[in-house]
Every structure is written in C-alpha cells, then in structure tokens.
Design a protein that fits this description.
The chain has helices spanning 4-16, 25-45, 49-52, 55-68, 81-88, 91-111. It is 72% helix and 0% strand.
C-alpha cells in the first residue's frame, strides 16, 4: 500500500506546528488538524484504516482523533471548530499532538 498522500499531509501538518506562528499558535494547530483530517479521510474512504495499518499507527490515529475531536464545541465567533479546539488544548495535549503528528509523518513516509 502506498501512503504518499498521507505522508504529504502529515508532513504539511508537521510544518504547521513549526515556529513562528505568524497568525497565532491556535491557527497553526487548526491548520495541522485540517491536514491530518485530509490524510485520514482518504484512508477512511478507501476502507483501509483497520485492514492494512500497523497496530502502532492505528493507536496513534485513535489518539490523534481524540485530541482533534470537536464534539460538543460551539463556535460563536465563527473562527472554525478546529481553532476553538486548538485554543482549548492544554500544554500537555499540544506536546502530545506534536509528537503524534511527527510519529505518523515518519510512519507514513517510511511505509510508502
């Protein structure tokens, strides 16, 4: 299985998290969320998430989806739910997010 699209999306997500954050850290994290969702959507569309991914990658993806979840959030200021979510992340969650994206970027690149 080729993962070039996922490798590209997670590489871009990783770049979003690098300094400086010209429009603010929350906007950068929201951009990373968007890139990750694009890469994961393609896997979901092809029905490959459970069938071909290594268990370690699946565990990271589950954790990433939990961090990215916008369930129950409201966006009264119309900044986007990913930005609202990014603003609510703790320091530890931001560190973990960065680590997960880095690990998945490496995994998809090496598995391509």
């Amino acid at each position: 299985m080729k993962y070039s699209y996922q490798a590209e999306k997670f590489s871009t997500a990783r770049s979003c998290l690098m300094l400086p954050h010209a429009r603010g850290e929350a906007t950068s994290i929201a951009g990373a969320f968007h890139e990750c969702s694009l890469g994961l959507h393609d896997l979901d569309e092809k029905g490959l998430m459970d069938s071909v991914l290594h268990d370690d990658a699946k565990a990271l993806i589950r954790e990433l989806r939990k961090i990215m979840s916008t369930e129950g959030l409201k966006d009264p200021n119309k900044v986007g739910l990913y930005t609202v979510k990014a603003e609510s992340l703790s320091y530890e969650e931001r560190l973990r997010l960065s680590h997960i994206i880095d690990e998945l970027n490496f995994w998809f690149r090496e598995s391509d």
